[in-house]
Amino acid sequence: MRSLALLLFVAGTLPMAFVRPIIGLLLWMMFSYLNPHRLTWGFAVDFPWVLITAGATLVALLAHPGERQAPPMKPIVVLMTLFLGWITLSTFQAAVPDMAFTNYVRFVKMMTMAYVTLMLVTDRQRLEWVIWTIVASFGFWGFKGGLFTLLTGGNYHVMGPESSFFTDNNIFALVMCMTLPLMRYVQLQVQRRWLRLGLWLLMGMTAVSVVGTYSRGGLLALTVTATMLIWKSRRRAMLILVAPVAALALASFMPQQYFHRIHSIDNYQQDASAQGRIESWKFATHVALAYPLVGGGMGVWSSHDMWRRYGPEGAVRGRAIHSIFFEVLGEQGFVGLALFLSLLLAGYLGLGRVRRRARAGPAEASWLADLASMMQVSLVGYAAAGALLPTPYIDFLYQLLALVAVLQILVARVEAAEPKPDGPAPVKRTSRAAARRSARAAPPAGRPASSGGHRLPNW
Prior knowledge:
3 domains, disordered C terminus
């Protein structure tokens, strides 16, 4: 029944995408982030929904030039293109060609949709549709995970939807931390009281779901995200009051096994998982030193031979590199890492400039400042959690980076449309000789000017 309902929904909405390509983009995001087909049975579970919606969007994009804009040549877009080009180069030199090519094709697909986002999100309304789709999609799983944690007393790990890019509990925690600031942005914009209260509940349940993953990196990211969220948010007094109380209440609710898991951070020397991460970082560093320009290519960590040559003595071979920074270093070399770091930094600084420009503009542009601030928090949350996770190539990140360029375009339009205040009248320049003649013709101080050539009596 669920499969049939999903099929009917797509059959009714997909034709609209051929007329309005933005609808195709939203459908693609829904299947990529919400994964509704993972909640069904039968044929719909493995049906290529993502491929079909992406294909329909690309066809509509080509068929309706009036619905798109040229990709803006902003620094963030240039860096995205350079990073894609560098990964292309490293793939031809990869140590594990088959795995590198498979991962490369997947990365090209997600970058293609990031460029589609740049071309289709042309105004505030479309941008709001995209943000709402992200919040609703990931928010569903955040609410579900938080409810599961509360109903089971926190005794089981929260996981993402099966066969999605955030199935793993650690990556699920990262994605939820990136989504929390966008939930806050939506809450700042809605006017209805019941919607604001509902978004408070959604944010709370999403935070609970992060704790329920038992992810130590997720807990670190949640702490960083919550701190940044309070610092960047308008009307932060409520957050300052609610956050500590909620954290204490949740801590008292979680079972003892959760705290044993978290306290293992202090004893990382005896923790096998932590030691495995450190070994993978050493392996990535050694590979980068051996191949400093292009690294070992995507999936170099899967090669037992590469681990034998560059891994620490006695390390478990074939272990994923648990850090976005070390993974890019090992797979793309020092140049690739420099491009990746520049990409994240350009996104954060670009959002900061949008925030300042929007605040200096008219009151109607305040939403741009709010969104830029919250997207900054999302990027910080990604960097905090990603420092311990192998997630440098996920759809959500590059969609956010594409939206940075969209915000830069929109704030420039606001500035161009703002009426300029009238300045002072221009000063008429006179020569020095003319100024002296004017001074001689002027009457002495305290004496009125003559009229008709006759001197007035001095009363």
